[in-house]
Every structure is written in C-alpha cells, then in structure tokens.
C-alpha cells in the first residue's frame, strides 16, 4: 500500500528497528491467519471431496453426453460436415453399421439404444433391431440399402438429425426435458405432447404448495409466537419445549400419527361421522392427496416458523406498544403500527426458511401425497431409482439446487439485516 | 393482553383476548396432538390404525402389548435399531471432531475468508436432502460405496457437520478468551490451557452439537433409501418400509419408544443449556 509506505518511511528513519518490527508483526499475523485456516482445513477437505465434488458431478451429469461420441466414433466422424438438408452420404451408413457391429461385440449397444431412446422414444427398438440384423453380415455391403431395408427410418432425415445432435460432448437435452421441451423432427425446439408435460407442472405445484404451506405456518405460527413471547420466562420455556418436541421426533413417526388421524376410518373422520357432520359413506378424503401433503407439511414445518418469530418478538419490549397506547393509539392500531413492523425480519426469515425446506420435501409427499400431492423431488427420485434416466434426474436436481441456493442467499441477506443467526 | 385480561379492559377487548388465547391453544394442540395420539393406539389389540369400540370403553381386552412384543421379537426391527445405533454415533463422532476443529478456526479473529468458508461448511444443511442423496448416490456408485456402511456413515457425517459448526461456533463466540489468556499468563502451555480451560467451558456446545448430529443421522431416511443395501437397513428405513408396504401398529410402538428417546434427549439438551448458562455467569468484571 503506497500510503502506508509513505508514513512508514520517516518513522523508519527515526527508529532503525521499526521496519523489522513491522515485518515481524506481519509474519506473526500471517502465521495466525494460516493457523486459523489450518484448523478448518480438515473439514473443508472432507466436505469438498465428499459433498462439493458429488454436487459438481451431478451438475456434470446433467450436461454430459459422452455415450454417443464414445460408443459411435465412426458415425460421429462421418457426420462431421453433414448438413441436415439431405440424407447423409453412404459412408455414414457404413459408419453406423461399423459402430453397431463393434458395439454388439463389446455388449455396449444397449447403452447407445438407451441414450437415443431418452431423446426419441422408439429409438431403442431401432438400434436393437439394426444391431442384431447387421451383426452377423459380412463387412462388405451396400450398407445404405441394408439399413433402409431393416428399418425405413434410416432413410429419413430425423434419425440422422438425432445422431448428429447427440455427437457433441455436451448436451442441453436434459434441461430441455426438465422444462417439458424437446427437439422436433425438423430440429426445432417444441413442447412435448400435452400428456407428457409433467415437469413444469410439478415445479409450479411445488412452488405454490410450498407457498401455501408457508402462508399457513405464518398464520398459525405468528399468533402462537406472540402468545409465547409475552409469557413469563419459565412458562415460555416450557411451552417452547412443546413446540420443539415435534421438531425432534422422527418425521416418519409424525407421518404415522397423521395417517392414524386422517385416514378414511381414522380419528378425524370417526369424530365427523359420530357427530353426524358427514354420513358414513361420504367420509372426506383427507390424506393421500394434496390436502394431506399440505396438512402434514404445515405441522412438520411450523416449528421452523415459530422459532425465528419467537426470538425476534422476545426482544421487543412491552413498553413500545404501551407507549403507543398511552399516546392515544387504539391497541389494534398500536399493534399494527409499532409491534408488527418490528417483527417483519423474523417473519421474513421464518417464511423463507419454511419455503426453502418445503420446496425440497420428498418423504411427506411420497407417503401421504397420493397422485395430486407429488413434488418435483419425487420425480427426481423416480428418475434415479425407476426410470434410470440419471441425466434428467441430474438436470431437475440442478435446477432445484440453484433455486434453493438463490433463496438461501436471500434468507442470509435478510437474517443478517435483522442480526439473527441460524442456531 | 398479556398474562391475563386486564381488569380495566372492556368486554370486547376481553373477548378478543380469550379468542386469541384459544387460537394459540389450538395451534399448540395441532403441533402436539398427533404425537400424543399414537401412544394409546400403540397399545391397541387390533391390527388397524384406529380406536376400536373396546378401547374407547376402556375394556382391558381392547388393549395389549403385542406390538411391543412384536418389535422386540422381530429380527428385522432389532437389526434396524442395531444399525442405527452403529451408524449414528460414528457419523456424529466424525462430524463433531471435524466440526469442532473448524469452529475453533472460524471463531479466531484472524480467520481469512470466514464468510465463504462458513457458507461452504453449512451447505449440506441448505441443499435439499433429495439432492444430496442423488448426488451422493451417483458419486458413491462410481466409488462402489453404495450398499456399504462406510457410504452411509460418510453421508450422515456430512449432514451433521453444519449443526456442529453452528452450535460450537455460537458457544465459542460467547466464550471469554480472557480465561484462556489468563491460563497462558499463569504459565500453562497452549495445549494445557485449551484442554483444561477452554474445552470444559465449551463442552456443553460440543455436546449439543454432537446430539444434533446424532439425531440427524438417527432420523435420516432419504439418503439411506438411496444408498443403503438390505444389510444396512436403519430404523427410519424399516419404518418407511412398514409405512409403505405392510402397515401394522408395530410402527406405533416403535414411534412411542422413539418419542420417549426424543424426550430424554431434549431434557438432556435443556440440562446442558442450563448448565452452560450457569457456568457463563461466572465471568470476570
């Protein structure tokens, strides 16, 4: 720093040892910084290797397109300069046959077929059929004729356009699929057919149901937090234990309890029937649908709303509202004009916390959501475990992670503004 | 409208006050009742999730401990408990060790990039569980760690880390460094001073961090669902299977037992908190 040097220069003339002292101090400072950093290093390395790397790996998986370039190198090379205005040259047919024959020997043609099928349903059959019928032919053929005889789609441009599109090392296909888009036969981006449009619907549903749950936790939690915050300390601590007890019990135990309460012959319905509010044959469906997901999630997430609200309200002295009342404000007016604005940071933090947790919910929708209460998380799990489309799962997951991190950054800014910690 | 309706309040205000109190009670009820309901049902004699006529009329025949007997005689439930008690302590120990060390660094005045590093370390708490599970599943399948105890322990220790870092950091920021300096000035070696002075004072924070980490692992089902094999079945996974496929009241008995454990742990945590408050009161000046 030039300014520092300028002030240090005359001083150094005065005291011969100052420069060395300064250097020494700086060295000590540096050593202290290093020492503090070294303490965090083991954990940083642990999290870095075992958490950040897997997350990055998931991000990579969502754009990775190595299957075709690795398994069909001849085809990729043959289609290099091809423009999809006409059918490719004969060499491309020979390249496809060569690649598939090699893939048959290496037992990898299934991977090729699966990858192409993810982008164009029906491609699996085409590749499998072509592989089996070309595998045992002698290598010198008029491959164009052979392939077109096996399946007429080899004589159509869309098949070749698909191969050409999958030749690159990375792809945006999974993100398109995550937004219910795909490449049409002419290579243009279009919406998938209406019955397949599921992801945008799930994203929207995840968002609005999370927003509703957030609203409900606020409506239930705000008065509760206010009530507890005005209790004497000992009693407040006791009630807070009651609030925190569900927080500490397994979410599965709580879901079980809700199934007991809400199922068609459960406690709530039995009470409704016993009091003749509903007939025994038209018991309302309270669980295994969107309503069930909302009820259970509201209860599970309520403590996350009450905690920040309570900690903010506890810090607002009674005398503020009393002062307003003594100055002639109606108690309601005093509450809205004096107390409520002071609790806004707590409400904002609680709401964002609940919303962030809600958008990532998986267990609750899976167990009590039925069809109409599924979230995007359930679709991710489905793609990982059942449809085995890992690229799509990774793309959906990356979108969800990005949204969550963005919301968290907002939460952090808000929490810092109100000087509140997560703990 | 505080502890009781004030004497000078008019009837309308009093009405509002009681209405408000009722609302608060209903919300508390909504929070707690679902937990209370499972306790009597876990003693039901019938294999369904509902109160039978016999139970409501308090006939002894309506009650039994068969679901508890079922739990204690079932190999798969007991194995699941064993697995949970194997995985959770190891995961909590790893998280607590590494997390405490990191918290010690993070709370030092000279820590560089504090915000960034704290952010990275609490990331496992922010990223949705399903994402962590998916990412670790992809990563562990490449490393052949799927269907192993090591895989689950690593994953659970990662989930526990943010809790330890946050609680221990909070405790350390309340810790008066003068104690440590006083020990040094009286001739203690830094190591000795740390273990004899700092450590006992921040121990409550470390213990509650460890408890948080333990509970996180003990409760976790999403990751286990993705990366556990049949031999690593934990208690939550067994409960999940029971809820999903063979609903019977054994899960209510287990739920009641888990609830008891949670109450004991919560009481323990409150005890630790009070103790640390009591210790904090002995501060110089």
Describe this structure in words.
The complex is a heterodimer of chains A (423) and B (285). With 423 residues, chain A is mainly α. Chain A has helices at 2-14, 18-61, 67-71, 73-78, 90-106, 109-119, 123-135, 143-150, 157-165, 173-178, 199-229, 233-248, 251-262, 267-274, 290-314, 318-326, 331-359, 363-368, 376-385, 390-417, and strands at 181-183, 189-191. In chain A, strands 1-2 form a two-stranded antiparallel sheet. In chain A, a hairpin with a 5-residue loop joins strand 1 (181-183) and strand 2 (189-191). Chain A is extended. In chain A, 39% of the residues are buried. Chain B has 2 domains: 1-34; 66-280, MetI-like (MetI-like fold, Orthogonal Bundle), CATH 1.10.3720.10. Chain B is mainly alpha-helical. Chain B starts with 10 loop residues before the first helix and ends in a 5-residue tail after the last helix. Chain B has 12 helices and no strands. The chains are: A mainly alpha (423), B mainly alpha (285). At the A-B interface, helix 2, helix 11, helix 12, helix 13 and helix 15 of A face helix 1, helix 4, helix 5, helix 6 and helix 7 of B.
List keywords for this structure.
heterodimer; A: 423 residues; mainly alpha; MetI-like fold; 3 domains; two-stranded antiparallel sheet; 2 strands; disordered N terminus; B: 285 residues; 2 domains; 75% helix; globular
| Secondary structure: helix percent of chain B | over 70%
Q: Give the strand order, joined by hyphens, for the main sheet of chain A.
A: 1-2
Instruction: Tell me the count of domains of chain B.
Output: 2
CATH architecture of the largest domain in chain B: Orthogonal Bundle
Number of self-contained structural domains of chain A: 3
Q: Nearest-angstrom radius of gyration of chain B? A: 24 Å
* pLDDT < 50 stretches of chain A: 1-9
CATH fold-level name of the largest domain in chain B = MetI-like fold
What sort of overall outline of chain A do the alpha carbons produce when their principal axes are compared?
Answer: extended
Q: Averaging pLDDT over every residue of chain A, what do you get?
A: 87
Helix and strand succession of chain A? HHHHHHHHHHEEHHHHHHHHHH
The name of the CATH superfamily of the largest domain in chain B reads MetI-like
Radius of gyration of chain A: 32 Å
Largest interface: which pair? A-B, 89 and 86 residues
Number of helical segments with 4 or more residues of chain B: 12
CATH hierarchy class name of the largest domain in chain A: Mainly Alpha
Structural class of chain A: mainly alpha
Instruction: Please identify the oligomeric state.
Output: heterodimer
Derived structural class of chain B: mainly alpha
* Number of β-strand runs of chain B: 0
């Amino acid at each position: 720093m030039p300014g520092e040097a300028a002030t240090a220069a005359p001083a150094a003339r005065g005291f011969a040892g100052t420069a060395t002292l300064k250097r020494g101090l700086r060295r000590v400072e540096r050593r202290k910084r290093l020492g503090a950093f070294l303490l965090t290093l083991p954990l940083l390395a642990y999290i870095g290797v075992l958490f950040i790397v897997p997350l990055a790996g998931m991000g990579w998986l969502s754009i990775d397109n190595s299957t075709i370039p690795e398994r069909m190198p001849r085809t990729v090379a043959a289609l290099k300069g091809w423009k999809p205005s006409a059918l490719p040259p004969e060499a491309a047919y020979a390249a496809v046959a060569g690649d598939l024959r090699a893939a048959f020997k290496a037992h990898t043609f299934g991977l090729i077929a699966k990858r192409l099928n993810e982008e164009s349903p029906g491609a699996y059959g085409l590749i499998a059929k072509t592989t089996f019928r070309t595998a045992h032919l002698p290598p010198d053929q008029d491959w164009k004729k052979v392939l077109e005889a096996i399946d007429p789609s080899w004589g159509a441009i869309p098949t070749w356009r698909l191969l050409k599109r999958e030749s690159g090392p990375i792809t945006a296909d999974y993100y398109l699929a995550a937004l219910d888009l795909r490449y049409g036969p002419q290579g243009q981006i279009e919406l998938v057919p209406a019955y397949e449009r599921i992801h945008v619907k799930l994203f929207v549903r995840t968002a609005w149901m999370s927003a509703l749950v957030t609203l409900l936790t606020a409506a239930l939690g705000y008065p509760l937090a206010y009530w507890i915050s005005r209790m004497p300390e000992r009693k407040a601590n006791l009630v807070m234990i009651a609030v925190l007890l569900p927080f500490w019990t397994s979410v599965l135990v709580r879901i079980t309890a809700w199934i007991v309460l809400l199922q068609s012959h459960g406690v709530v319905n039995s009470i409704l029937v016993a009091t003749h509010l509903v007939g025994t044959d038209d018991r309302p469906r309270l669980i295994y649908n969107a309503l069930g997901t909302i009820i259970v999630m509201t209860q599970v997430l309520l403590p996350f709303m009450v905690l920040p609200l309570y900690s903010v309200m506890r810090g607002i002295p009674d005398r503020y509202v009393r002062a307003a009342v003594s100055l002639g404000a109606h108690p309601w007016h005093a509450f809205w004009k004096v107390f409520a604005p002071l609790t806004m940071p707590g409400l904002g933090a609680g709401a964002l916390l609940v919303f962030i947790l809600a958008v990532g919910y998986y267990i609750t929708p899976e167990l009590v959501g039925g069809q109409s209460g599924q979230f995007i998380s359930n679709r991710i799990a489905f793609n990982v475990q059942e449809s085995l489309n890992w690229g799509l799962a990774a793309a959906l997951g990356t979108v969800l992670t990005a949204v969550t991190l963005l919301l968290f950054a907002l939460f952090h800014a808000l929490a810092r503004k109100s000087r509140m910690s997560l703990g | 409208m505080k502890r009781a309706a004030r004497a000078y309040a008019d009837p309308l205000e009093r009405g509002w006050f009681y209405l408000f109190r009722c609302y608060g009670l209903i919300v508390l009820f909504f929070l707690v009742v679902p937990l209370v309901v499972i306790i009597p049902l876990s003693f039901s004699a019938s294999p369904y999730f509902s109160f039978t006529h016999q139970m409501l009329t308090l006939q002894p025949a309506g009650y039994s401990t068969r679901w508890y007997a079922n739990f204690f005689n079932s190999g798969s439930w007991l194995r699941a408990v064993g697995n949970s008690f194997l995985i959770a302590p190891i995961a909590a120990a790893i998280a607590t060790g590494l997390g405490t060390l990191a918290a010690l660094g993070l709370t030092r005045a000279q820590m560089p990039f504090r915000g960034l590093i704290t952010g990275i370390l609490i990331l496992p708490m922010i990223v949705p569980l399903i994402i962590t599970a998916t990412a670790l599943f992809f990563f562990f399948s490449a490393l052949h760690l799927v269907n192993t105890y090591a895989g689950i322990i690593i994953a659970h220790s990662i989930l526990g880390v943010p809790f330890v870092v946050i609680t221990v950091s909070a405790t350390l920021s309340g810790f008066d460094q003068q104690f440590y300096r006083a020990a040094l000035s009286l001739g203690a070696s830094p190591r000795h001073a740390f273990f004899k002075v700092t450590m006992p004072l921040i121990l409550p924070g470390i213990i509650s961090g460890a408890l948080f980490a333990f509970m996180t692992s003990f409760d976790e089902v999403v990751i286990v669902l993705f990366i556990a094999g049949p031999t690593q079945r934990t208690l939550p996974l067994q409960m999940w299977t029971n809820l999903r496929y063979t609903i019977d009241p054994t899960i209510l008995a287990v739920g009641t037992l888990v609830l008891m454990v949670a109450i004991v742990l919560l009481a323990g945590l409150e005890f630790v908190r009070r103790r640390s408050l009591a210790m904090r009161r002995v501060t110089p000046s």
